[in-house]
User: Which sequence fits this backbone?
């Protein structure tokens, strides 16, 4: 037969267009878009459904080594299972360098964790915590060339934070080799000073986590990161932006002609600092930056609607609540600075944004696709293979029932965390079928892909990370990427 699968009669939406069409799939790729396509060996009826590119969750933590008796609840199996059941077909978690470890060793260790487990496709960001001469001069350039084209820089957390000089050096490497730096912008010294004072006063409950990281701390670090990016002339992404103060800094940067990309996450739309109030249960919502208040939620929604944000990611950082390796380290209710940071959100990311964003008219369907699939694929050099429905793209497709009503309850989710911060929330719209390279991974309430179905994706050098001033002596590299991408697509069409 001509097609392996035809997805018929759905309403397709991409970042740009909405169209009623069938999708013809062969060898895991989209090979035809049109009306009345010939029969495929498999027929999928999408009448009354939305057919969207599978989500790309470009910020999630899976099976990241934690140290000190802590353990993430999700590995590549449970994490990608949860992703698929929520319409996400590509994840980009972090290979984190431990101080003293080579970056290469961190990446190799992470491949061992992912291999034979993932259900959906995956790429890696790196986390650089120890930018030695060897890392800066040899390891990072080599790894970027091999398809690890993004890395995260922390300005906070005692065991991960870098100083400005180290950040500048790393940004220079990003500029020279065409990688994208992601920045966790919170001022570590401010947080340490505030935490010390709070603890000394006996204020140790989870809710003081939010008081130890007020918005000014995020604003200052965001401002500084923007200045460092300007100095080096390389775009950066500010990850997990929580509210007004950081947004003001990013808007300032945009008004001054700087390409600063910004990411936000569900917790800044659906949670507030008051979720940390309920005694030790508040530990369930301890993440950094912390959720703010209702007024800030509205400002974050505005940023999604008006283009300030480029991407919407989960920042899934899974720790079980009632667990000595999770939110109760050693089995105890600990003071807030010792609660592992992070909340789960891989599976609920898309339905929450669809229900409260698209259905309410805060964002359009095409913006939804852009923020959750197309832009993250572009930002990390995976476009046009991932993040869109186009001839030659991988057939990574989520078929949504836009009317399906779901009450979010942890027992219905597919992660290995023992809670969801969104318990009891009602949403309308959920993916009923998820295809990864044309194969069903989630269908009609069942997980159907075998473990190991997911493949590793080497990332291209992201066009969006190009500097402002491109050295003509560098041979017009950034212009050449366009024919490159087209060439790759043409090649895949012939294959
Ligand atoms: O609290 C959070 N966000 N934990 C995950 C690690 C990070 O900083 O993204
Ligand atoms: Zn078949
Ligand atoms: Zn972070
Ligand atoms: Zn994170």
Assistant:
């Amino acid at each position: 037969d001509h097609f392996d699968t035809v997805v018929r009669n759905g309403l397709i939406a991409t970042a740009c267009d909405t169209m009623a069409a069938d999708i013809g799939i062969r060898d895991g790729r989209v090979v035809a878009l049109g009306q009345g396509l010939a029969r495929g060996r498999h027929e999928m009826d999408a009448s009354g459904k939305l057919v969207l590119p599978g989500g790309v969750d470009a910020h999630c933590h899976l099976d990241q080594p934690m140290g000190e008796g802590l353990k993430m609840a999700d590995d590549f199996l449970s994490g990608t299972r949860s992703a698929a059941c929520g319409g996400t077909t590509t994840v980009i978690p972090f290979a984190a360098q431990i101080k003293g470890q080579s970056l290469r060793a961190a990446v190799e260790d992470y491949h061992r964790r992912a291999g034979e487990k993932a259900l959906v496709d995956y790429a890696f960001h790196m986390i650089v915590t120890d930018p030695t001469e060897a890392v800066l001069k040899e390891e990072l350039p080599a790894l970027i060339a091999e398809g690890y084209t993004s890395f995260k820089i922390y300005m906070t957390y005692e065991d991960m934070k870098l100083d400005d000089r180290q950040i500048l050096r790393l940004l220079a490497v990003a500029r020279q080799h065409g990688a994208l730096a992601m920045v966790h912008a919170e001022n570590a010294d401010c947080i340490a000073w505030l935490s010390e004072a709070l603890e000394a006063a006996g204020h140790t409950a989870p809710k003081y986590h939010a008081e130890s990281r007020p918005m000014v701390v995020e604003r200052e670090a965001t401002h500084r990161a923007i200045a460092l990016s300007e100095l080096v002339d390389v775009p950066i992404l500010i990850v997990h932006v929580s509210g007004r103060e950081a947004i003001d800094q990013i808007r300032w940067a945009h008004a001054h002609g700087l390409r600063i990309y910004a990411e936000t996450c569900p917790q800044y739309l659906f949670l507030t600092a008051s979720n940390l109030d309920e005694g030790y249960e508040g530990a369930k919502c301890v993440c950094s930056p912390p959720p703010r208040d209702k007024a800030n939620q509205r400002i974050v929604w505005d940023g999604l609607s008006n283009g300030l944000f480029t991407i919407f990611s989960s920042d899934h950082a899974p720790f079980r609540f009632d667990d000595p390796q999770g939110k109760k380290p050693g089995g105890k209710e600990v003071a807030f600075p010792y609660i592992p940071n992070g909340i789960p959100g891989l599976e609920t990311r898309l339905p929450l944004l669809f229900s409260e964003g698209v259905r309410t008219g805060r964002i359009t369907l095409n913006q939804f696709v852009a923020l959750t699939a197309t832009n993250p694929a572009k930002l990390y050099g995976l476009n046009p293979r991932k993040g869109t429905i186009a001839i030659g793209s991988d057939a990574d497709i989520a078929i949504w029932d836009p009317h399906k009503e779901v009450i979010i309850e942890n027992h219905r989710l597919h992660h290995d965390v023992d809670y969801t911060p969104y318990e009891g929330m009602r949403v309308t719209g959920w993916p009923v079928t998820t295809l990864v390279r044309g194969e069903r991974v989630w269908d009609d309430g069942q997980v159907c892909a075998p473990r190991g179905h997911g493949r590793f994706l080497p990332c291209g050098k992201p066009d969006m990370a190009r500097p402002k001033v491109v050295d003509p002596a560098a041979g017009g590299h950034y212009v050449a990427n366009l024919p490159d991408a087209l060439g790759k697509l043409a090649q895949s069409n012939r294959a």
Observations:
- The chain has a mean pLDDT of 95.
- Residues 59, 61, 315, 317 surround zinc ion (ligand 4) (CB under 6 Å).
- Residues 4 and 26 are 5 Å apart (CA to CA).
- The radius of gyration is 22 Å.
